[in-house]
Amino acid sequence: MRRLFFFILISFFAVEGLAQGWPSRPIRMVVPLSPGGFADVPGRILASRLSALLGYNVFVENRPGAGGTIGADFVAKSAPDGYTLLFTGTPHVISAWIYKKLPYDALKDFEPVALVASGPYVLVVNPQLAVHSVRELVAAAKAQPGKIDYASSGNGSAQHLVSALFASMAGIELNHVPYKGSGPAMQDLLGGQVKVSFAGIPNVLPHVKAGRLRALAVSTPQRSPDLPDVPTAAEAGVPGYQATLWLNLAAPAGTPGDIVQRIYAETARALQDAELQQNFRSAGVEASPMSPQELAGFMRGEYEKWGKVVRDTGATVN
User: Fold this and answer.
1) How far apart (Å, rounded) are the C-alpha atoms in residues 259 and 10?
2) pTM attached to this predicted model
3) Where are the beta strands (DSSP E) in 13-159?
4) Which domains are present in the chain?
């Protein structure tokens, strides 16, 4: 019994010492999605600022695949010492429902650290599809059920579920065409092989301005300052529809609370930086700081929301 007591005591002081001495070496930020994608660019922007604030390099490591689950699993199984973090977002809670046998629990195996950013998806169509509004798209889809294709970055991706939710709430049937990443999806959308997609603002804004794509709506409850004349989906004819792209930092479960709070505090400082905020806007998101406690409740709500979408729409990776 005495030996057990001393073991617990030594472990306690070891953890406390770890927390007080953190950081003492570079920190890995795992982005479980493709380089150049909606999570990668803001992740690199944040990592650069955190490096300056912490005095140690915060480097991004991409581990894409299987809807973000490969990178998430790597972080879940990493040492809970603050030196391996997960920079992810909406796909994290979607994958928990899409993949039936994940080797980790999307909520229990991670410590929420900070909500970092959020932004809208844009519903766009190739001009070859003769619709100019959400109502016209809905009418066209009802006239030819399942004949209009929409592109996503893959089965179970956020683009997939955002689109599936839209179709369900609009009462229409669209044909899902999954791609291996947002790049190939955008190429075929521009080429007219597929006609519809929900995508991030940075990916579509140049094409909308050039007339190569037509923006019908944004997915958030508020209009985007980048597309002020484009209505929200709710305004445009699908009442109650909303879907937000969000990004957050997480750590492996069991990471000491002192370290979690330090990372959150430095992230909150980073998000106040005017240059970072502008760089985020250029990447299509807005800085949206949220504490670990607030983030835990937010993620639980998003987890339940997208679980319902998966059940209601029958969305699957197969």
Assistant:
1) 19
2) 0.85
3) 27-31, 58-62, 84-89, 110-125, 149-152
4) 2-118+247-313 (3.40.190.150), 120-236 (3.40.190.10)
Residue 12 has pLDDT above 70, yes or no: no
Distance, in Å, from the CA atom of 125 to the CA atom of 135, rounded to the nearest integer, reads 13
Token pair in block for residue 221? 């409850």
List pLDDT tens digits, range 58-97: 999 999 988 889 999 999 999 999 999 999 999 899 999 9
Is residue 154 pLDDT above 90, yes or no? no
Burial classification of residue 292, based on how many CB atoms lie within 10 Å of its CB (0-12 exposed, 13-18 middle, 19 or more buried): buried
Phi, psi torsion values for 283, nearest 5 degrees:
-90, 5
Residue 222's SS3 state is coil
Mean pLDDT of the residues in the chain: 91
CA dihedral 106, 286, 45, 68 (to 10 degrees): 20
Q: Are 246 and 254 a contacting pair, CB within 8 Å?
A: no
- Rounded to whole angstroms, the Cα distance separating 57 from 55 reads 7
Give Cβ neighbours of residue 208 (< 8 Å, ≥ 6 apart): 122, 124, 214, 215, 227
Q: Where are the alpha helices (DSSP H) in 101-227?
A: 134-143, 158-170, 182-191, 201-209
The 10s digit of each residue's pLDDT in 156-189 is: 888 899 999 999 999 999 999 999 888 899 999 9
CB 269 within 8 A of CB 53: yes
Confidence at residue 16, expressed as pLDDT on a 0 to 100 scale: 47
* φ, ψ of residue 268 in degrees (nearest 5): -60, -40
